[in-house]
Design a protein that fits this description.
The chain is mainly alpha-helical. Helix content is 48%, strand content 5%. A two-stranded antiparallel sheet has the order 1-2. The longest helix is centred in the N-terminal third of the chain and has 30 residues, at 19-48. The protein is globular, with a radius of gyration of 21 Å.
Length: 220
């Protein structure tokens, strides 16, 4: 019987009575913090220790599970297990991906054919077997020139097979982090903010440099 179900005992560490409503946000934040910590650790391993990672190791355990075990005292274990399963799928995909990389841009693109779409929804449309559908387990689509540039750049340029690549979700999160961090080279601003109003070409070059910095794209 699931914890907290009617007739059950409930979670061992779940507050009773009126305190439950107050504790729910704290539990949610605790799970989120642990999940972020694990994802950061995984990304660090992927980017700095890719050569030593074995694909089969991904099927055994996710690094950092001891952190999850400790967090079970403050968060619902069933929810943590579910989140960890999703993290494991992301890790499996990312480990296999980095071991085969770095890649050429042609290898990363979703299609060798140049196609443009009026929106991202149209790009993912699978009616009648057309187009690209979901990115797949552990993967996401990444726009080299970010979708947030839609105010400056026409959608048909952003939503095209030349601008969209398919990469692991964990590495996509790291790329988003690279765009969000404030850096001295941008006068204390973020990379994303520094590109506000820039041309498609400048944003494209910035996107390529981030892919190379992360180690996804070859520098040749």
């Amino acid at each position: 019987m699931a914890q907290g179900a009617e007739g059950g005992k409930g979670g061992q560490f779940r507050p009773k009575d009126g305190a439950a409503a107050e504790a729910a946000p704290a539990e949610k934040l605790a799970r989120l913090a642990v999940r972020r910590q694990l994802r950061r650790a995984l990304v660090h391993m992927l980017l700095h220790h890719a050569a030593s990672l074995a694909v089969e190791a991904a099927g055994d355990a996710v690094p950092g599970l001891d952190v999850v075990a400790g967090a079970a005292t403050i968060a619902d274990f069933a929810a943590m297990a579910q989140e960890n399963a999703a993290l494991k799928r992301d890790a499996d995909a990312a480990i296999e991906f980095v071991q085969k990389g770095p890649y050429s841009l042609e290898q990363l693109r979703v299609s060798p054919d140049e196609k443009a779409f009026s929106s991202f929804s149209e790009f993912k449309k699978i009616d009648l077997g057309k187009y690209f559908g979901p990115a797949g387990d552990g993967y996401e689509y990444h726009h080299i020139v970010e979708q947030s540039a839609s105010g400056d750049i026409p959608e048909v340029e952003l939503q095209s097979t030349t601008n969209i690549v398919r990469i692991p979700r964990l590495l996509h999160e790291e790329i988003n982090g690279e765009y969000s961090r404030t850096l001295l080279e941008f006068d204390g601003s973020s990379r994303r903010a520094s590109l506000d109003g820039a041309s498609f070409e400048d944003k494209w070059n910035a996107g390529i440099s981030v892919l190379q910095k992360i180690g996804i794209l070859r520098g040749d």
